[in-house]
Amino acid sequence: MLEREDLTARIADKRASPSQILSSFNSVFKPLLEAPLPISRLAARKHAQNYGPTLLKVVKTCNSELDKKQPEDWSECLMSLMFSALSLVARISLQLFSKPEDYYSMWYCYLLKITEKEKHEEAVNICKEVVEEVSQTGGMPYLLLNCLVLWASSILKTKCTVQTLEEVYVLVAERCLGVIGTLKWDGSLNKVYDSAFKLLFKAGRMLDNLAGGNTDLHIRALEIRNKAFEFLKHCKPFIESDYFAFAYSSVQATFKVATAACSKKLYLKCIEAINYTFETCWSLDRNSRTLVELLSFLHQKLEDYQEAKQALSGLLLETKQLVDMFFNVRYYLDIARLSYLSKESFAGDLENAHLYLKLIFQKLVSPTQLSQDEIYELKSLLPKIHSQQESWLKIVGNLHSPLSLKQNPPSSSIKLYIELFKFYPSIVQLQEKISLETKPNWQLFYYIMCLGHFLVFVSGKSLTDSSLGLGYLQKLTSCSSFQYLSNTYNITLGLLHTGYKEVSFKCLRILFDYIVEHPCKMSSAQLALIELGCKFSSESKSYAEFIVKGVSSLIKNYLSENLETQEFMKLVDCYCKVKLTKAELHKGASFQREEFLGLSLEGVCFSVKGKILERELINYHSRLLTSAKSNKSQMVEHCAEAIQELVKVLFTSVYPPSSTKHGQIVLKYIEIISTCDKPFENEWFLEEMFSVKGTIVEKMIFSLKELTKFYELPQAEVWNSILYLEKIKELQHNSHDIWIGKESLALYVEAVNHLNLAAELVGSFLGYSLSPQGTHWEKTHEPRDQYKTDYCKSLVLASDVAELLGLPYLQCKLLSLAEMCVEDDLRKLCLGLRLVLGFWEQGKTQLATETYLKLPKTSVKSSDHIDCFHTELWVLTLKGEVKYNMGDLLEAENHCREVLSKIPAAHSTYRRVMLLKAQVNFLLSKIHLANGDLLSSFKATKEARYSINDIHTYTLTLQNLSLLNSIVDSSMSKFKENFSKAPRCTVFPYSSWNIQRLSERILDHLSTLYTLRSQVSMANCFLMQGIKLGRVLGIPSHYLHFRSKLSELQRQTLNNPKLCHDNINQTKTQVPDPVEFIENVFSAVFEPIVYLTSPKDTETLRPYEVSALSPIEMMQLSKYISTQSLIESLLTLGDILQTPEYLEQIQNVIAEQNYYKLAKGLLTYEHQGHVFRKLKALTYKKQANLVVRQKGGKECLELLGRGITHLGCCEDFLYTFLKDKVCCKNFSINPLVSHELGNCLLIFADSLMRKHDSELAKKILQQLVSFPGILHPTVERHTHFLLGKNTGLEDWTRAYHVVRSIGVSYTAQLSSVLNKDLRITSNQDLMEKVSQIPSDWGVVCISAGRGSFTSGLLLSRLSSDSSPFTVNVGACECTTQEPFLSVVEEFTFIMRESSGTTSKNNTQSFNKQVWWSKRERLNEKLEKWLDRLQCYLGELSSLMLGKILNKEIDSMIKDAAKDFCLKKCEKCGQHWNTEVVYHILNAVATEEFTLDSVRNFLQRTNMYNNSIFRKIRNIRKASSGKTIERAPVVLVLDGNLLHLPWESLKVLRGQQLTRLPSLVFLFPRLKQQALFSSESFYILNPSKDLPHTQSTFERYFNQQRWQGLSEVPPTESEFSGALETKDLVVYCGHSAGEQYLKGERIKDLKVKAVTMLMGCSSGLLKLSGQYEPQGIALQYLLGGCPLVVANLWDVTDKDIDRFALELFKRCVDRSEEVSFAVKNSKFVCKFPYLVGSAPVCYGVPVKFN
After folding, report:
1. To pair with 1080 at 20 to 30 A between CA atoms, which of 330, 597, 805, 1609?
2. DSSP state of 370
3. 377: how many CB neighbours lie within 10 A of its CB?
4. Which of 713, 598, 594 has the alpha carbon at shortest distance from 654?
């Protein structure tokens, strides 16, 4: 057994192995080790006596031995022994130590040893225990501090996480500081402070590394480092320089992160940290300067330039020390830069910098004057000053670009820059002398000095500065690598634009010399310089000579290079431009063949020579076009001659006859002629080469025929087609026939055949053949040719022509081939979308959808390349078209909006941009129309039309219609070769064909829109333009479409001769007759095309005969005429035959067959698009109408049902629609077919009502008014009319339907004028509108539905202080039994007789007595007719009376009305209310009705009460002898009722009454301004043929001192000016004065004046069949006129003169309300009814002051 004393000796002497030592330790202290815990105090005392000293000795021995260098095994042994010994000491420490610090000091020593051995985890655990025990014991602050620091240090060396770093922060920043706060300073704390600072600083750095961009963690890291400085500032000695260095290092780390993340928050924290640093101490040394500079930079990052300047200003010193002066220069430059950034004056700072630089270099004669310390400082400072000077050089470059030369900048600032930059070489020289490596930017310096001197020269015209500028430019070009060529080019250009041509040309010579002397790869800047030289060449012959030599030298330098590069070809372009300019200076000198560059170059192969000559051909063509535009005839002739010579050289000398190029050059020549044909009137090349005579078009056609005999050129077939169409245009333009000529039709057929042949040729070259069905291409053999791009161009152009011809099957055939010729996804997508739309045009919706889904999913991104950019925009547009056809209107509109947002405002390719804009707006118009927004649809269509007009192709006005005008468009630029080396072609629409096709569609759409607004004359105008367009172009599809549509519109506007005395057929003049259409369409169009396309033995054309066509022949026609146009024509022919008025007029032989059945035969199952679905439905509807006439009954409903089914989503649509169910998952009403669906459903509902199935009909009508899209005006009017007849509806709902049934198109027209939707959309909306009406006013709405008068009238009374009342007048015997139709027929007869007695229609020999007797008889007839009209209305006419203004009588009437027994009428279902009783009693009070008539009415309507007549008698007694005044009433009349004189009813005598065509016209007129009769203007007898009128009014007008015109026709400006500025305008002349001021002009005015039009029929709105009537009075109302007094029919001048004079006296002299004065003035007429009833008031009640 080893003794205890020997153990320590053996440890020190290492007399045993480590394992033996450990074993000995365990054996020696075994009793203590095995003692049970806890040890009792007695046992502990005993163990302390026995083992304590030995254990302490072991600990000390191990500690001292560990200080020595030990082997690894012994080191581990000693550590283990020390720990074991300390562990045993811990058991007896209280008995062993009198001072606790001795015990814990031993543990601290052990901690130091294990941390030295990097056992940090063990150290962390022990430190934790020691710190807790020491903290509990109390005292020992220094030991506790050391343990805390050691603990924190060990943590940093174990794990590095956010949590451990926060733990370190708590230990050091909180616990250590807490302990330190209890101590006084002594030297022993210095080490703690130092260690704590290093720990926290390190922890902050480590947290930065862990943050990884997390802003909050980076801020925390900075805060930890800032906390570390609290320890550093207590270290002794305190070194300020180190303090600033550490602070800079800390902030710099966070600044880098903030810069990377662009974090404003981090920037602000950095600023806080720096400010905190300077709050602690301040001294100006190198490190503190660095920190201030960083602070300034941080403020710059936050754009707080004032703070940044303030920070730097604090570093400026008043000193004469060289280094400090350099510092001042640096700071002044930086402060000036900050002033520049903050847009403040910086001249003073630059002057200070210049001053110090001047002082420095005056003082610094030699660098040897500098000390080593100064040299050391300058080595770090001078590069920064050098950099700042370069920065200022760049700033000046930005401040004063070459464009500044045009702005005449102030020379003082420029001179300051020049003086400052003169020290730049001195700074560079000083850097070199102190052995500092420099990289001066001499090019930037020379450039700025050059620019500066030229700026001074321009502002002060100093020749010295001009010379200095040229000198610096020379130095600049002498630099090894010239980087400022584009800038110096701009300087040259700026000098030229400011008028200094000589100086500019000197600059150009220097730059030109540089380019010639330094041949390298041509850059864009060099090309720009060369092009500028080309511009110079036009200044003088000497300039031109110099430029020619320069460009020639450049071309020679390139001869050894690849001559097919784009740069070389641009050089060729420049050469050609200069040569042409030179020729122009010599005034079109005679052309010399040797001038061709391609012929003058030696050693060039034929292929390259051909390309150069072709390039020259392009340039001559370009100059030809510009010269022709500028009317430079000599240059035009020069270019035309050169072009023919060039083509001849290429055709005869360069390209061999065996090459296809031989034929292609002729095609190119034809393209050139097509763009500018006038200079080629004496064309000789084609004559000479092909021996052909004739017009230029005939020459080109013949030449192409000859070419195609030798070469298979698809392009030639395309051009054959184009030239045939051009020949048609020539023929048709000179023809006066209304139809397309027979010769033109023959050429048209040839053009279509050539397009088909072109497709077959290209397909054959590509290895494809058309399928037997002719629907798709099939791969049959290997490709014969690889030139896909040339084919693609031809196919795209041919497809554009096919689209213009209205042949979508041919268009799809060509586009599907073109799609095979392209490789990149973008163009494939564009062509694919065009193909999808072509399928949709054919009605092949399934094939279109399948093709659309297979298209490449290329995302549309913004591209810099012009063709790619436009292709991307067109892709979006075409996608919008596809979505529109699919019915996804929202997505389609989104695509349109996106395209419009990307279209540039100003663009070089103006033509293409405007076409795209027109297309997008046209699509938007269709979308708005489908959505039911007629106003927005009009706006978008007008935008599209303006865009089309802006392209200068004026298709809408039939000017410049040449199809050839855009073949060589500037837009046909090549794509950048991003994907392949092959040149690329344009695949989106851009040509004249696309413009004309869009023009045709816009004309068609405009006619539809105006038809929906019942503006038939405007619709006719656009249809006539479409007909003329189709005729001039010789396109049967367009012609037939517009003729059919016009004939149908004419048929719809036919008036019933029994209801209208002014039939539209009597007034039409230039519009083609539908009868003429049916008589000639077969012989003029159908038969010729069938004959031309049928197999025949002879080529001579036989006379065409009118005969019926078979379905097979109709299918044959559909190959040359669009199926849609054919079907429309056949349906129109069928309609004409079903119109009795037309049947009576047909004289020629016509083809007698069932046109409806023939049209139905053209519609196959494949035709599924919305257009063909509508045509199918229309066919069934027409057949149903035919059945109604022949049979009627169930078969009619079945046919209508089939038509409705075609417009629905599936076969069960109609059944489920009627049952108010959902038929399928796709159940919806397609807004694109809602228009036609509404027509069919209305007829269906009407038929059901005739069969007394009113409930089902009402359900259909209710759903009909909620349809998407726009309903036909007639459909909308009649639908609401039928719904208004439903007596079961709530009062406001019923009144709403009555209001909506009146003036549908008038509302649309007013919405367009006021640019907002004025439609009343619901009964709630109606309530809000009616609440605006004055409380005492009444509004009476009278509706007649579609105008047939077979269903009676609906009358609705509205007022703001009571519920509306609606009654169906003539519904049954409870009101009246007389049909209203017979009432209107009698009025028509009277008016027809009256028109025969007026002067303008009375052409027979005049017998005064007979004439008077006729007029008196007619006056009596009209009086009786008015009684009949009142009898028809019966007691309900009292609803048209205004309220009695006498409150006593009015109160009595209201009380009496309450006593009536109000019941539902059993006969008609009408609910009678107190409102109608009140108005009947209102009439009774003034004895308008007899008591017997009132009793009869009350009995008929079940409202009779025996006791009520006593109150009625009291009312009459109270009103007897009193003047009863009534409130105004406004009549809102259906368009078909506006020609009737309602105001002249006897019941309405003494009633203020005006009329309006729609309720929406009332509300803008409710706020009236005061009117003064003194502000009046008259137009008297402008035609000088009304002497009686002249003499009647001239004296009165002069007495009133009115301004006006007598016997002088007013100009448009005089007339319109009076309407807009005066309060009253009187017109006394023929009609309404529209010969002096058109109605279309009036509606666009802001009419202020009350207008009185005393001419014949000035207030008549002419009936237009199904459409609401139009007239000049309506235009005045649209223009905002408050009131128009006008005549409903023709009147005699003397009688109307009496009336007018009385009217003026009452309105002006007596200040009567105008409508009241009109009523009172009628009785001064000889014929108070025949003449006195003609004047009516359109508008609202007004009175003159």
Report:
1. 805
2. S
3. 19
4. 598
What is the Cβ-side half-sphere exposure of residue 1213, based on CA atoms within 13 angstroms? 19
Report whether pLDDT(1610) > 90.
yes
Q: What is the 3-state secondary structure (H, E, C) of 1209-1261?
A: CCCCHHHHHHCCCCCCCCCCCCCCCHHHHHHHHHHHHHHHHHCCCHHHHHHHH
Model pLDDT, residue 975: 31
pLDDT of residue 1068: 43
Length of the chain, in residues: 1745
Contact 247, 277 (CB under 8 A): yes
Q: How far apart are CA 160 and CA 269, in angstroms?
A: 24
Q: Enumerate residues 6+ apart whose C-beta is below 8 A from 755.
A: 717, 718, 721, 798, 801, 802, 810, 814
Closest to 289 (Cα-Cα) out of 273, 280, 278, 299: 278
Average model confidence (pLDDT) for the chain?
A: 78
Residues in Cβ contact with 376 at an 8 Å cutoff, skipping those fewer than 6 apart: none
Please, are residues 1649 and 1618 in contact by the beta-carbon 8 Å criterion? yes
pLDDT per position as a tens digit, 1118-1166: 899 999 899 888 888 888 888 877 877 777 767 777 888 888 888 887 7
Q: Specify the long-range contacts of residues 154-161, CB closer than 8 Å, at least 24 apart.
A: 154/115, 154/120, 154/121, 154/123, 154/124, 154/127, 155/120, 155/124, 156/199, 156/202, 156/203, 156/206, 157/118, 157/120, 158/120, 158/121, 158/124, 160/206, 160/209, 160/210, 161/210
Contact 60, 15 (CB under 8 A): no
**Cβ pair 1533, 1559 in contact under 8 A:** no
Compute the distance between CA of residue 39 and CA of residue 1597 in angstroms, rounded to an integer: 137
Give the helix ranges, DSSP H, for 843-957. Answer: 845-854, 866-886, 889-902, 910-930, 934-949
Question: What is the DSSP-derived secondary structure letter of residue 1744?
Answer: B
CA 304 to chain centre: 39
DSSP secondary structure letters along 39-69: PPHHHHHHHHHHHHHHHHHHHHHHHHHHTS-
Report helix, strand or coil for 408: coil
pLDDT at site 1041? 92
For residue 1329, the number of C-alpha atoms closer than 13 Å in the C-beta half-sphere is 23
Phi, psi of 1498 (to 5 degrees): -65, -35
Main-chain dihedrals φ then ψ at residue 1129, nearest 5 degrees: -65, -45
Write down the pLDDT at residue 1394: 86
> Using CA atoms, how far apart are residues 351 and 894, in angstroms rounded to an integer?
58
pTM of the prediction? 0.70
Token duo for residue 727: 């020949």
Closest CA to 1363 of 1268, 1259, 1478: 1478
| Sign of the alpha-carbon torsion through 736, 741, 743, 747 | positive
User: Two tokens at 68?
Assistant: 């020595």
Q: To which H or E segment does residue 121 belong?
A: helix 120-137
Site of tokens 């690849």:
562
Q: Is 783 left (phi over 0), alpha (psi -120 to 50) or beta?
A: beta
Name the token pair of 1068: 């039409």
Sequence-distant (≥ 6) Cβ neighbours of residue 1336 within 8 angstroms: 1442, 1443, 1445, 1527, 1528
Strand 1683-1687 to 1650-1653 pairing: parallel
Of 1627, 1654, 1677, 1623, residue with least CA distance to 1735:
1654
CB-CB contact of 1563 with 1530 (8 Å): no
DSSP 3-state of 1342: strand
Helices (H) and strands (E) in the chain, counts: 76, 15
pLDDT at 1531 over 70: yes
Query: Which of the four pLDDT bands, split at 50, 70 and 90, describes residue 389?
Result: low
3-state helix, strand, coil in the chain (%, to 5): 65, 5, 30
Q: Quick check: 1682 and 1319 in contact, CB under 8 A?
A: no
